[in-house]
Each structure stands twice: as C-alpha cells, then as structure tokens.
Design brief:
CATH architecture: 2-Layer Sandwich
Largest sheet: 4 strands, mixed
Strand order of the largest sheet: 1-2-4-3
Number of helices: 3
Helix content: 25-40%
Number of strands: 4
Strand content: 15-25%
CATH topology: Ribosomal Protein S5, domain 2
Number of domains: 1
Order of helices and strands: HEEEHEH
Structural class: alpha+beta
CATH class: Alpha Beta
Oligomer: single chain
Length: about 120
C-alpha cells in the first residue's frame, strides 16, 4: 500500500485489533478483483532509523506468509508500537497472528499456544 488515502480509509473506517507491540487496522472492501493491500506504519517513537527499518522488515516478512489469509480487496495497516523495537521475532509473529485472528473472526485459536508464529 502506498497511497495515503488507502492508509486513511483502513485506519479511520476499518476494524482494529491491538496488541502490546502492534495495532492492525483492516477495511474490507467489495473490490474482489484486486489483491489485498498491506501497509506499515513505524513512527519515530519506535526508535531511530535503523531500528524502524528493522521492525518494518520483520513485519513485512511476517505478513508475506499471512497474505493468503486476507480477503481479496481488503486494506490492512500494521502499526508498530514502541515495544516492537525490543520484541523478539517470535513475539511479533504471535501478536500479529492474534490480531489477524481477531480481525478475521477466527476465535478458535489459543494465543498462548502459538509462540513460534506458526499455525
């Protein structure tokens, strides 16, 4: 996702699921002919440029494996909170899974059982 309008729509009009290290906003759209779009927000509150880029790369890598879970045409924004800077990769994965499960309506999974980011 690159357009500011898409970020604004997902954040202002979409559903939200927050965790300690990140917040995920998702807006479902009726445009079934387009793939889901994902954007990342990592502010200066997370850390310096090197830290922000590291967090963004980790989140991008995690979302790559979960992209198939998103409905077609949806807009998803992953916003990193300051604790994401010191969180281990496995913790980011687990919290992203819990947030996505909540947004996608899958309540059957136990967030404590998944610490390695796998299903």
């Amino acid at each position: 996702m690159r357009r500011g309008e898409d970020f604004a729509v997902a954040i202002r009009r979409g559903d939200r699921a927050g965790r300690r290290t990140l917040v995920v906003h998702m807006k479902r759209r009726d445009e079934l002919d387009t793939p889901p779009l994902v954007g990342f927000v990592v502010s200066r509150a997370v850390g310096g440029a090197v830290t922000r880029n590291l967090v963004k790369r980790r989140l991008r890598h995690l979302m790559r494996d979960r992209l198939h879970l998103l409905p077609r045409g949806s807009l998803l924004v992953v916003r990193a909170n300051p604790p994401a800077a010191s969180a281990r990769f496995e913790r980011l994965a687990a919290e992203l899974d819990v947030a996505l499960d909540r947004l996608l309506g899958r309540r059957g999974s136990d967030p404590q059982a998944r610490t390695d980011g796998r299903r």
